[in-house]
Design a protein that fits this description.
heterodimer, A: 2 domains, 68% helix, elongated, B: alpha+beta, Jelly Rolls, eleven-stranded mixed sheet, 37% strand
Chain lengths: 172, 303
């Protein structure tokens, strides 16, 4: 019945597909918001468990916002915020930098530490929107859809985040 | 004046600044810092987590079955009969100049009615009966559009008129379905006379007849003791897909659009209460794809 996805998301292939597409970004969003990977994992699992339980009643196109709503509601008041902990990716930009002088590398490290710290000091709203865009590569309209806010509001959060970050890390 | 208010930073980071805006921003003293932030923040990562394990745990749970949309009429027979009686009494007074009584069921609903002589009528979804209540004791006669199951009290001749033909009985149980160009009459008890044009058919218990465009299609044997639809099912015998879809629209109160032409007919019994299940069976049977758009279910051929 792969070809018949009417109305619900109970079909296992469809459900796994939604999971694969959404689990990481939902979980990352919760990490950005609460700073706690363990809690974020639990909330993500609970949200998908709830979607699975109610799969017959949730149409495919509503599944995404359903997950975010469930996770947000479950998290209300229950979670003490921690400071966000992120890791650096050893990617191409980083390795290109290593060809620079040791002083430059050191300075770069110093700034990255400050940036990390500054991200942790952003408001939840600014940080989630900013990191969803930067780390998960989500477009503003995608963020707006998931958080159920306007694109204008997302842009405001992004601009606000950039200003706060620049002020806190100082001039390069 | 701060740079922050002068430039649309969000627009810049989305790469949506035009050349002039970008040129001006590049000359701002803060530009380099912003550029560095935008690039460096892309290199952060969250801790890895085991997705497969999580999915396995999630799907170890059991989905809750869908709450049926259509509640079979027999669950609240008494309430509905009472409601309909009160309603028909009200209608009778409101529509005094017109002595005809009309009972109508919307899509997705069925109704159970009691006629003045205590005969019972079960009205299927999207159906209508009209009769003269004051003259009922002289002549038991009603007009039917759609489908209804009758349990007629003993007495004089009972007549059901449809656009497609006339059904006459004396004390019996029978089902009449007049949809499109097709008239189906099923006899469950007593004797039923079906008149279509010059053609007359006498049905005995356990038999039924189909007229398509006025042409009889033989008298097959019934394999149930009550119409399937009164048991929460939808039964079809050599029915075209269009007819199945039309019945689904009435039973589930949905709109379905068939985007492909299919000549296969179907003889099957589907659930009349579980929309998902019926839709899935039909999709598989006919190799169709179902998508929803603006509350309309669109069925198209599956590649």
């Amino acid at each position: 019945m792969e070809n018949c996805t009417m109305g619900g998301v109970c079909e296992e292939g469809l459900f796994s597909r939604i999971f694969t597409q959404q689990a990481r970004s939902l979980r990352n969003y919760l990490v950005y918001k609460f700073g706690d990977s363990e809690k974020a994992n639990d909330l993500t699992q609970d949200a998908f468990a709830k979607l699975w339980e109610n799969c017959a009643d949730v149409p495919e196109e509503k599944a995404k916002s359903y997950l975010y709503t469930v996770a947000n509601n479950a998290a209300l008041n229950k979670i003490a915020h921690k400071k966000v902990v992120l890791a650096y990716a050893q990617n191409t930009t980083a390795s290109a930098v290593t060809t620079e002088s040791p002083e430059f590398v050191y300075e770069e490290e110093e700034f990255r530490t400050r940036l990390h710290h500054a991200i942790g000091n952003l408001s939840d709203a600014q940080r989630t929107a900013f990191l969803m865009n930067r780390i998960d590569g989500k477009k503003y309209h995608e963020i707006a859809e998931l958080l159920e806010i306007s694109v204008k509001a997302v842009e405001k959060r992004i601009s606000g985040a950039l200003v706060s970050l620049r002020r806190e890390i100082g001039r390069i | 004046m701060e740079t922050d208010e002068k430039y649309d930073l969000a627009k810049w980071m989305a790469g949506e600044m035009n050349d002039d805006e970008l040129k001006a921003f590049r000359n701002a003293p803060e530009f380099e810092t912003y550029e560095w932030i935008a690039n460096a923040s892309r290199d952060f990562r969250t801790e890895a987590f085991d997705q497969d394990k999580m999915l396995a745990r999630v799907m170890a749970g059991k989905p809750r079955p869908k709450i049926p949309k259509v509640i079979p009429f027999y669950r609240s027979n008494l309430f509905r009969a009472a409601a309909v009686l009160i309603l028909s009494a009200g209608l009778f007074f409101i529509l005094k100049p017109n002595p005809m009584t009309t009972e109508h069921t919307a899509f997705g609903k069925t109704a159970s009615l009691v006629l003045p002589d205590a005969s019972h009528v079960e009205l299927n979804s999207g159906s209508e009966i009209t009769f003269d209540e004051s003259a009922w004791n002289q002549k038991r006669e009603l007009a039917l559009k759609g489908e209804a199951y009758f349990k007629v009290a003993k007495g004089k001749t009972f007549e059901v008129n449809t656009d497609l033909g006339k059904v006459t009985v004396v004390g019996t149980q029978f089902n009449v379905k007049a949809r499109g160009s097709r008239l189906e009459v099923e006899c469950y008890e007593g004797k039923v006379n079906v008149t279509v044009g010059n053609h007359k058919t006498l049905l005995t218990p356990g038999t039924w007849v189909v007229f398509d465009d006025g042409n009889p299609k033989g008298v097959p044997v019934l394999d149930n003791t009550q119409p399937a639809w009164t048991q929460g099912e939808m039964q079809f015998t050599s029915a075209p897909l269009e007819e199945v879809i039309a019945e689904m629209e009435r039973r589930f109160d949905v709109r379905i659009e068939l985007k492909t032409k299919i000549d296969k007919t179907v003889s099957a019994t589907f659930s009349g209460t579980d929309f998902q299940e019926t839709m899935a069976t039909i999709c598989t049977l006919y190799k169709l794809n179902a998508t929803t758009s603006n509350d309309v279910v669109i069925l198209s051929a599956y590649e």
